[in-house]
Amino acid sequence: MGVPYDTGALVAADRGERRQWARHRALLARRVVPTVPAPVLAQSWRGGSRQALLARLLAGCDIEALDDQQARSAGSLAARAATTDIVDVCVVEGALRRHDLVVSSDEGDLRAIRGHTEAFRARPVISVVMPVFDPPEGLLSKAIQSVLDQVYPHWELCVADDASTQPHVRETLERFAALDPRIKVTYRPKNGHICEATNTAIELATGEFIALFDHDDVLSPVALYEVAAEVDAHPDAQLIYSDEDKIDAEDRRFDPYFKPDWNPDLNYGQNYISHLSVYRAALIRELGGFRKGFEGSQDWDLLLRAIDRIPPSAIRHIPKLLYHWRAVPGSTALQLAEKSYPVEAARMALEDHFRRRGETVEMHPVPGDHWRVKYPVPSPAPLVSLIIPTRNAAKLVRQAVDSILSTTDYPNYEIIIVDNESDDPETIEYLAEIGRGSDPRTRVLPFHAPFNYSAINNFAVREAHGDVVGLLNNDVEAINRDWLSEMVSHAVRPGIGAVGAMLYYPLNTVQHAGVILGLGGVAGHPFKEFPRGDQGQKNRLRLVQNYSAVTAACLVIRKDRFLEVGGFNEKDLPIAFNDVDLCCKLIEAGYRNLWTPHAEFYHHESATRGVEDTPEKKARFQSEIDYMMNTWGALLMADPAYNPNLTLVGEDFSPAYLSRAAKSWTAHLP
């Protein structure tokens, strides 16, 4: 059986993963900072087969006995041997269950959950609404049984049969309804499809919250408890969602989606919220329930209407696998392309959302049945000051400037080359050429002081004429004509801080696609060295989204927002992490940072900076790590744009060996 996902022993075997986790946990308690980040011990995950073969290779190994070189060799061998998609399903199952924080037979956990439930300030009834139309008998029974198996007792199951044609459906529903009075069933005389049937189920609901549930899916036994615990911790919650995975006809689990916390711009590209979704019942009724005509994307339409009315703080994410989405032939879970109508319904829902907000945007399809929202550039287009610091490196600077001048279709920009005391004759001549007015859009700004990346850029921003500034390394090369229009269109939006671009190595592999906090220590780049055009995890390499940070190798931001948060930290972060620190300050100020794959550059990475190879440089780098850890430690340990179930040592969004999400009932354990 081909399985598109495998947490496998590739990460399970990675003692670096566990070591990194332990160091992060020690960070806030003892302020212990690793001098060197834990090594990445495995090849990048691409789709399952490599990882599964590595799992087999390591299945008989003493994991702790593997040294780093042996682990790398195993990874390389697995990569070379990856010629089949056949995997041992038990590897997937075992790895997924490591991310389930409770086992139903664990009496200690169950006692603690019951104790926690009794301690809730309120114990809301959660109405699980389930529209039904001709599901297979066995799958319908399993769906209902998963509700009956909930460890949280305050629920009701509201079922609306949508005029099913198979006799086993009524027989099954009546049998379960007789077992438990919390199960309510109504039978619609006429088939009305998913929206009308769900609204009928909602009419039965008396609970304070409504959980959306499909007739062949499965809930984790702790799903409703976790929702109630989240409500107890955050009484203002209006919408709660969880992570999810898929489950096949034989009840084998695979393909998890470990999601970020609320990510508004990712939500415009895909309905990543999906399952499990739980709404405050009053909100759903205020919205009028589901709208006929949006079948296939009715959940996304409901979400888009809900976020018009509730603040982001009312949207809560539970980073746990609480919902198992049934994937059988013909289901949307298995392959969206098997049903074309959800794609058009999604377009309608998104266009309607932006009309309600009075925003004029263009909707463009993205491979994978997802979307790109293209925002307009203001008219007139604001002046953008593109800042390129350099010392010598004439060929690189010329390449960067020429690529911008010849490629960029944005109508109003200037290029400021900040010369940090170049002494190379070729560079001096090139800068003199610019000074003589070779192109009126370019100018040279001398900076006479020792190299300090933060100070150079702060100085240039103050001298910039534009209302928008773009920070560029001297070793980048523009690729697509509308890169600056794309970045400016986002940077001028309300609430947006820094905007980052897609950067490739010259061999057309990904160098930068956002920044994950805590990855490898302080921060790291996800999807590094993935091929250009790769979809990444759940198509995220193709979608505009919010990341906590982006790199200043190519960063666009409104000048007033840069200055509002104090720009770069010249004193504590003269070389490294100043862009990450800037982005953290923007988050603290209430902005959200954004990365777009639709602004593309080649990046000849750090071609002129050199390496940290002297005692002085190493000491300076360590002090910068210390500063970041001490200043932003809590954020580095829990990046809201990432997920505590994902690795901190790999750059591929692969699952961690163990979840970093805490048990909600920990305080009640004996």
The level of helicity is: 25-40%
Separation of termini?
A: 42 Å
Gyration radius (Cα, Å) is 27 Å
Please count the beta strands (DSSP E, at least 2 residues each): 22
Q: Characterize the biggest β-sheet.
A: 9 strands, mixed
Structural class: alpha/beta
Notes on the protein architecture:
There is one protein chain. A hairpin with a 5-residue loop joins strand 19 and strand 20 (523-524). With 670 residues, this protein is α/β, with parallel strands linked by helices. The chain is elongated and about 90 Å long.
Properties at a glance:
19% strand; alpha/beta; 21 helices; disordered N terminus; 22 strands; 670 residues; nine-stranded mixed sheet
Compose a concise summary of this entry.
The chain has 670 residues and is of the alpha/beta class.
Detail the topology: elements first, then pairings.
Elements: H1 8-12, H2 15-30, H3 49-58, H4 68-81, H5 89-98, H6 107-119, E1 126-132, H7 137-148, E2 155-161, H8 167-179, E3 183-187, H9 193-204, E4 209-212, E5 218-219, H10 223-233, E6 239-247, E7 253-257, H11 264-269, E8 277-280, H12 281-287, H13 298-306, E9 315-326, H14 341-356, E10 362-366, E11 370-374, E12 384-390, H15 394-407, E13 413-419, H16 425-435, E14 442-446, H17 453-463, E15 468-472, E16 476-478, H18 483-491, E17 496-504, E18 510-512, E19 516-517, E20 523-524, E21 554-558, H19 559-564, H20 578-588, E22 592-603, H21 615-637
Helix pairs in contact: 2-21, 3-4, 7-8, 13-14
